[in-house]
Amino acid sequence: MINKIQLLPENVANQIAAGEVVLRPSSIVKELIENSVDSGATNISLVVKNAGKTLVRVIDNGSGIAHDELELAFERHATSKIKIVQDLFQIKSNGFRGEALSSIAAISHVTAVTRKKNNKLAKSIKISGNKIQKTEFKVSSFGTVISVRNLFYNVPARRNFLKSDSVELKHIIDEFSRLSLANQNVNFSFYRDNSEIFDLKPTNLRKRILTICGNRLENELVPIQEETPLVKIEGFIVKPSGARKSRGHQFFFVNNRFIKSPFLNHAVKSSFQGLLSDKLHPGYFIRLDIDPSKIDVNIHPTKNEIKFEDEQSIYAILKSTIKHSLGIFQVTPSLDFEMNTEMDIPYSFRNKNPLKPLISVDSSFNPFIEQSKDQVNSNSELNQVELDSENNQQKLSLLETNFNPNQIKVFQLFNKYLVTALPSGLLIINQNRAHQRVLYERFLGLLSNNKSSSQKLLFPHKIKLSKLDLISFRENKAIYEVLGFEFNEIDSEIISILSVPNLFLKDNLDEKLKDLFLNNNEIGFDSFSNGDLVSKRLSKSMAIQNGKILNLEEQQELLASLFACKENQVSPFNLPILINFDRFDLDKQIS
């Protein structure tokens, strides 16, 4: 049967369009708050229930929508922001396509109540699946209230793909943080399940940063400022002492619009050359004001990516501005001209004469006499190597070869890898990822059995949390306690840790606890439950780090624990733990 070309039904076309704009509840938060900002609102409230799956409501005191335009506002491509093609190159508003309200209404139950200042009554409209159910007039204050209920009610497949409430809430907090940082002159409030999370008064950028990200950045922020005919730059960078392993505190705003730009991020990171290790990422909160005609924001439905007409010049100006500020605030690598520039040789080896090579010569050896096969075959280890060119897929059957980590030779390479010989070849294991896997499965086991053991700390360990970190902590506190932690909340910002799980290694305790409880609002771990998420965080924070020297007993214990795991090929974050080089691989490399 030949399929005929035909126009899609309107409801199908609307759902397809909605899929490009509305990915999850946080997408609705972004679109509605941006509309409120564009309306000139000075007071914006966000209310969510069940991480936005049940309700997302945005209330503002903006200009409102004219009564005779309310129905039109929910039609596709209906907008007040642009009229002609040329307007696309002079965009100063957040939204402009006229797709958001229509897309939201296509996959949810929407109620909108709006009133302009010159109207005595507000007009209300109810829409489900892009079909208007009811309109009426009612008493309400001026501004607009839009309530979005039962997201993806008519697209169950999309609803099933939503993550846990914890993960979806983190996406919402992330979006709310970006919008409130971009518009610090607006009063923002945020309520989750009838509990207030944020009440942000109008203020300057620095205070808004500290309110959202925590006062621990108070002494870490370095101001930057530059103005050229091409671009005006202002904001803050975070000192190297405040750099982190994650990219959470990285914000670019172009004409008050949050954007993601690997190109500009590279400009920032290169400015810190010599100040940061490769494992750390600089924090920044940077605004760029550019002539709208010099950028193109119409390249992606979410408008998080833009194109610059002269990105090379902006890169150079941004890098120069940051380096200048680092210099002014004396955040630069120091040069010690009296430092001994000799190689750093261990003291015990200095002033020692080199040893003669320990090479012995077999004077009876004659290359023209054929060696016996017995001499060649005497190397039993080589005979045990089996050719298997498909082992690169990491399908090792280690247990089938009577693998016993306690009875094999193992050594540590570069303080990062464990190396051992197998009948099938050479096995190389990443010690950090291996330990992550071991800890992850142990913590999941403790949660499933609801059993744990803990150790009291000699002195309680206090940690100051930001509001975002506190949300995550309280949400998962019961899970941490099941695993062996004991807490005491001192005030609204400080928690005191009294006990930690027995599995917790005591070395670098302060760093590990901070890594565990700080910056947990950031999105990064794809998890099926809060327990899984906490287990991943714990395994990441507590695992043996690359660079740590392990004695033979520790090496063998780690190997034994790894191969007792249900899954020993990948880390909890789906990264490879080990690699097996068979004889075929080695022969190919050497030849």
Describe the structure.
The chain has 17 helices and 22 strands. With 591 residues, it is an alpha+beta fold. It has 3 domains: 193 residues, Heat Shock Protein 90; 123 residues, Ribosomal Protein S5, domain 2, CATH 3.30.230; 209 residues, Ribosomal Protein S8, Chain: A, domain 1, CATH 3.30.1370. An 8-stranded mixed sheet has the order 5-4-3-6-2-1-7-8. It has a 5-stranded mixed sheet with strand order 9-10-13-11-12, sandwiched between helices. The longest helix has 19 residues. The protein is globular. The two termini are 57 Å apart. About 11% of the residues have low confidence.
Can you summarize this structure?
This protein has 591 residues and is α+β, with helices and mostly antiparallel strands.
The global form is globular
Question: According to CATH, what is the topology of the largest domain?
Answer: Ribosomal Protein S8, Chain: A, domain 1
Largest sheet: 8 strands, mixed
Count of separate DSSP helical elements: 17
Strand order of the largest sheet: 5-4-3-6-2-1-7-8
Which value, in Å, is the CA radius of gyration?
A: 30 Å
Nearest-integer average pLDDT: 82
CATH class label of the largest domain: Alpha Beta
N- and C-termini, Cα separation: 57 Å
What is the correct CATH architecture of the largest domain?
2-Layer Sandwich
Tell me what portion of residues adopts beta-strand conformation: 15-25%
List the domain count as a whole number. 3
- Helix percent reads 25-40%
Give the low-confidence spans.
334-363, 365-401
Fourth-tier CATH superfamily name of the largest domain: MutL, C-terminal domain, regulatory subdomain
